[in-house]
Amino acid sequence: MSKIPKAFVTGYPIHQSRSPQIHSYWLDFYRISGSYDPVEITGEHFPFFIHSLKERGFSGGNVTLPYKEQAYALAEKCDEVASHIGAVNTLWFENGILHGGNTDAYGFACNLDDFAPGWEKDTALVIGAGGASRAVLFALKERGYQKIILINRTRGRADYLAQHFGRQIVVANWQSINNYIGEAELIVNTTSLGMKNHIHDQDENQQPVINFAAAKPDVVVTDLVYTPLMTPFLKQAQKTGLKTVDGIGMLLHQATLGFEHWFGIKPQVTKALRSQILTGMGEKEI
Ligand code: NAP
Q1: Residues paired with 151 in a beta bridge
Q2: In ligand 1, which atom is closest to the CA atom of 250?
Q3: Among this protein's residues, is 68 annotated catalytic?
Q4: N or C: which end of the chain has fewer CB within 10 A?
């Protein structure tokens, strides 16, 4: 009898993760006998957990905050994206070897392919220089962006990414954000500003006041934050009549690659899946 494949998502904390609902949906939809469960691991136990995946019978799984960099160090082999980004969010076994990949850049690009076809242009403005920003920079370079203006509250982190990602990245000061709005064909928020329960979210003044009125009329504005779905950033852009793309599609698309590794089928991101996940979040389609 063949083994029933099982996968996990780990992080700390892990209760907020939407991944179990996404993978359970596909397991049901494709009638696959398999499992995908959250496993909460505290810091000192993470390496032990990763080393014991085979004994525990896992085919692989997802890794989220704060362990993506550690997972990169612990994987025996990493794909090109993970190696470039320095973080792993997906683990799987191939010929007994633990592989690590990063599927965020793929998820980001697929979400824009779905909701803003033709988004691949020349100049982008990226706000934020944390882990998620790296995936966005990778995707933008892959899709041919020639100039990526990068702005972060802590300028040193943006400077570091510019050195790492090369000549397309131009760093600008946080305070000068509005000087660059008119140049961009794509504007991306990769900071956690606007996220529900984010420590700074209580104070509306923490949100950068962006002069979207100065933007090109056909600019695409997107936010990686998806709780709430309509973030203050997207609301500001929409009020000005600009095209916006929310962040949930990135989460759904990035999950497809892991599912394929563990369960052998590349699942589809459908309206029905999106709607089920939004309902679970207490959100409505926008
Ligand atoms: P991270 O590595 O902790 O980076 C956080 C970023 O937010 C940094 O650029 C940080 O700037 C900035 N930031 C935080 N608080 C701020 C404030 N009060 N004012 C200005 N900037 C602030 O986090 P991450 O992994 O990049 O994730 C960022 C967001 O993307 C999270 O909300 C996460 O949920 C979301 N995300 C979504 C997806 C998806 O599938 N849609 C995937 C990945 C991440 P400093 O450097 O100055 O601290």
Answers
A1: 127, 172
A2: 40
A3: yes
A4: N
